[in-house]
# Entry
Amino acid sequence: KRQVAEGRTMIASENCAAMVREAEGFAAHAYPDYGGFGIGYGHHGAEVKADTVWTRQQAEEALRLDLIARSELVTKRLGSTVVSQNQLDALVCFAYNVRNWQVAAPFRLLDKGRPVEAANSLLMYRMAGGKVLPGLERRRAAERALFLKPDAATG
# Structure
């Protein structure tokens, strides 16, 4: 496992990017989301307007940059908590999708040194608009499974 407190930011791997691609799907045309607009693989930003159209290449570049930025935020939020690459990937995927993720149960439980409970708590975040969504259930289950999976390098 890597120590986040070593002063370097861990960056989400391709495993995380693949999970985000699978969960978000590709949208070439902007769509209404969170009071603004989303595009590509769930990208949001001031540059995304109702009439914005992207290629897959633009979406891939935005996803790469979004995951770097989210990795930096997650790493900062973790502070001195020790996480594996798989755990980081799961947390970044979660943080990419959940508002107010910084105070969500997985992070609070990690703060208390309870990683298995943190992984299980991911499953609570399966609702939107007051309804359980099958897509969110699948996403959270995939994040939990990745969080609990030992890294190949560390066994």
Observations:
- Residues 1-5 have pLDDT under 50 and may be disordered.
- DSSP finds six helices and seven strands in the chain.
